[in-house]
Amino acid sequence: MFLLCFGLFIFLGIHSLRLFGDTVRDRWIARAGEKGFKLQYSALSIVGFVLVIIGFGLARETPQLLWTPWFPLRHLGALLMLLSFVFLAAAYVPGNAIKARLHHPMILAVKVWALAHLLTNASVAHVLLFGSFLVWSVWCFRAARQRDTRLQTHYAPGTLRATAISAALGALAWSLFALWGHGWLIGVRVMA
Length: 192
What we know:
Blueprint: H1 2-14, H2 23-61, H3 73-92, H4 97-102, H5 105-120, H6 124-151, H7 160-186
Helix pairs in contact: 1-2, 1-6, 2-6, 3-5, 3-7, 5-6
């Protein structure tokens, strides 16, 4: 469990720099340069991510169940994951209405992903992993919206075509991951 906690500390910590204002990030860039900052940021992110994977894998070997998830929540979890994949696609498809309206669909994708997994999993490791990401994403989304207000950031309205592409790409990615990718990458098949 230590590796999981330490990995979460590093990974979520490095991704929380902007939560404390841009001064820490700006000082880091001034000290290391733009390329040095990106290299160090990426290296720390990868180390944290690898520790999370290893730590979670070890914690799953001896699961400590906190409660038994209610079976119908699996269906709700699947629907939430579809929404999460659509948000994720919207973060990368330019000019869509989802990003225009919500402004930070990547953070919302993480938030919905974490919630969906908390509803359907109840071991200590699951609650620690997904609960940490849920708290982080709620905090991050709030900070990003406040930064938008402070900087008076305006988002261009999205087009129907770009929004439809976002939804279609998200649904396709969700289908592939639910039917095949989750079992292959995570070792747990979510749909037969």
